[in-house]
Design goal:
This protein has 136 residues and is α+β, with helices and mostly antiparallel strands. The chain has five helices and five strands.
Length: 136
Protein backbone atom coordinates (compact mmCIF):
# COMPACT_ATOMS: atom_id res chain seq x y z
CA UNK A 1 0.00 0.00 0.00
CA UNK A 2 1.33 3.44 -0.94
CA UNK A 3 0.65 4.79 2.56
CA UNK A 4 3.54 2.62 3.75
CA UNK A 5 6.01 4.68 1.69
CA UNK A 6 7.50 7.39 3.91
CA UNK A 7 8.83 10.83 3.10
CA UNK A 8 12.22 10.00 4.65
CA UNK A 9 12.74 7.24 2.09
CA UNK A 10 12.68 9.69 -0.84
CA UNK A 11 13.68 13.09 0.54
CA UNK A 12 16.87 14.90 -0.45
CA UNK A 13 19.23 15.39 2.47
CA UNK A 14 22.02 17.42 0.86
CA UNK A 15 20.54 20.91 1.00
CA UNK A 16 21.72 24.44 0.53
CA UNK A 17 20.69 26.33 3.68
CA UNK A 18 21.12 29.86 4.92
CA UNK A 19 21.55 31.45 8.31
CA UNK A 20 19.42 34.54 9.02
CA UNK A 21 22.57 36.69 9.10
CA UNK A 22 23.67 35.61 5.58
CA UNK A 23 23.99 38.65 3.33
CA UNK A 24 21.14 38.82 0.83
CA UNK A 25 23.43 39.30 -2.17
CA UNK A 26 25.50 36.27 -1.09
CA UNK A 27 22.28 34.23 -1.06
CA UNK A 28 21.36 35.50 -4.54
CA UNK A 29 24.79 34.43 -5.82
CA UNK A 30 24.33 30.98 -4.26
CA UNK A 31 20.94 30.65 -5.98
CA UNK A 32 22.60 31.39 -9.33
CA UNK A 33 25.61 29.12 -8.76
CA UNK A 34 23.55 26.21 -7.40
CA UNK A 35 20.70 26.57 -9.91
CA UNK A 36 18.08 26.57 -7.14
CA UNK A 37 15.09 28.82 -6.54
CA UNK A 38 14.82 28.67 -2.76
CA UNK A 39 16.45 27.40 0.39
CA UNK A 40 15.60 26.85 4.05
CA UNK A 41 16.86 29.27 6.69
CA UNK A 42 18.05 27.59 9.89
CA UNK A 43 19.28 28.82 13.25
CA UNK A 44 22.42 27.60 15.04
CA UNK A 45 20.48 24.66 16.53
CA UNK A 46 19.47 23.39 13.07
CA UNK A 47 15.87 24.44 13.54
CA UNK A 48 14.13 25.78 10.48
CA UNK A 49 13.05 29.38 10.96
CA UNK A 50 12.03 30.27 7.41
CA UNK A 51 12.58 29.98 3.68
CA UNK A 52 14.22 32.34 1.25
CA UNK A 53 12.92 32.23 -2.31
CA UNK A 54 13.70 34.04 -5.52
CA UNK A 55 10.49 36.01 -5.00
CA UNK A 56 11.69 37.11 -1.54
CA UNK A 57 14.92 38.32 -3.15
CA UNK A 58 13.05 40.21 -5.87
CA UNK A 59 10.88 41.90 -3.25
CA UNK A 60 14.01 42.94 -1.35
CA UNK A 61 15.63 44.36 -4.48
CA UNK A 62 12.48 46.33 -5.35
CA UNK A 63 12.24 47.66 -1.81
CA UNK A 64 15.86 48.80 -1.86
CA UNK A 65 15.48 50.37 -5.29
CA UNK A 66 12.36 52.23 -4.21
CA UNK A 67 14.18 53.62 -1.17
CA UNK A 68 17.38 54.19 -3.23
CA UNK A 69 19.46 52.10 -0.85
CA UNK A 70 22.67 50.40 -1.90
CA UNK A 71 23.03 47.70 0.75
CA UNK A 72 21.21 44.38 0.51
CA UNK A 73 20.42 43.43 4.08
CA UNK A 74 20.33 39.93 5.50
CA UNK A 75 18.37 36.82 4.64
CA UNK A 76 16.51 37.03 7.97
CA UNK A 77 15.10 40.41 6.98
CA UNK A 78 13.44 39.08 3.82
CA UNK A 79 12.76 35.37 4.35
CA UNK A 80 9.26 33.96 4.66
CA UNK A 81 8.87 32.91 8.28
CA UNK A 82 5.67 30.90 8.03
CA UNK A 83 6.47 27.84 5.96
CA UNK A 84 4.55 24.63 5.34
CA UNK A 85 6.60 21.61 6.39
CA UNK A 86 6.18 17.86 6.58
CA UNK A 87 7.59 15.35 9.07
CA UNK A 88 10.01 12.67 7.95
CA UNK A 89 7.62 9.88 8.98
CA UNK A 90 4.68 11.20 6.95
CA UNK A 91 3.43 8.99 4.13
CA UNK A 92 3.62 10.12 0.53
CA UNK A 93 -0.16 10.04 0.08
CA UNK A 94 -0.63 12.61 2.87
CA UNK A 95 2.22 14.61 1.37
CA UNK A 96 0.56 14.51 -2.06
CA UNK A 97 -2.57 16.01 -0.53
CA UNK A 98 -0.47 18.82 0.96
CA UNK A 99 1.16 19.47 -2.41
CA UNK A 100 -2.23 19.71 -4.11
CA UNK A 101 -3.81 21.92 -1.43
CA UNK A 102 -0.85 24.25 -1.02
CA UNK A 103 0.33 24.30 -4.62
CA UNK A 104 3.91 23.79 -3.50
CA UNK A 105 6.68 22.21 -5.58
CA UNK A 106 8.73 21.08 -2.63
CA UNK A 107 8.52 20.99 1.15
CA UNK A 108 11.09 21.05 3.93
CA UNK A 109 11.19 17.88 6.00
CA UNK A 110 11.50 18.08 9.79
CA UNK A 111 12.33 15.49 12.43
CA UNK A 112 11.84 16.58 16.03
CA UNK A 113 11.71 20.20 14.89
CA UNK A 114 15.01 20.07 13.01
CA UNK A 115 15.47 20.33 9.27
CA UNK A 116 16.57 16.95 7.89
CA UNK A 117 15.73 17.24 4.20
CA UNK A 118 13.42 18.38 1.46
CA UNK A 119 10.98 16.49 -0.73
CA UNK A 120 9.57 17.51 -4.09
CA UNK A 121 6.65 16.47 -6.23
CA UNK A 122 9.13 14.66 -8.49
CA UNK A 123 10.36 12.67 -5.48
CA UNK A 124 6.76 11.57 -4.81
CA UNK A 125 6.32 10.48 -8.42
CA UNK A 126 9.58 8.54 -8.18
CA UNK A 127 8.31 6.84 -5.01
CA UNK A 128 5.07 5.84 -6.77
CA UNK A 129 6.99 4.53 -9.77
CA UNK A 130 9.28 2.47 -7.52
CA UNK A 131 6.27 1.13 -5.59
CA UNK A 132 4.44 0.09 -8.76
CA UNK A 133 7.58 -1.55 -10.18
CA UNK A 134 7.95 -3.65 -7.01
CA UNK A 135 4.34 -4.81 -7.27
CA UNK A 136 4.80 -6.30 -10.75
Amino acid sequence: MLRSVKVEDYMTTQLVTFKPETELFDAINIFSESNISGAPVVNDRGEMIGMLSEVDCLKAILQHTYHEEEHGGCVGDFMTAEVDTVTSDADIISLSELFIEGRRRRMPVLREGKLVGQISRKDVLRAVSDFVSKQK
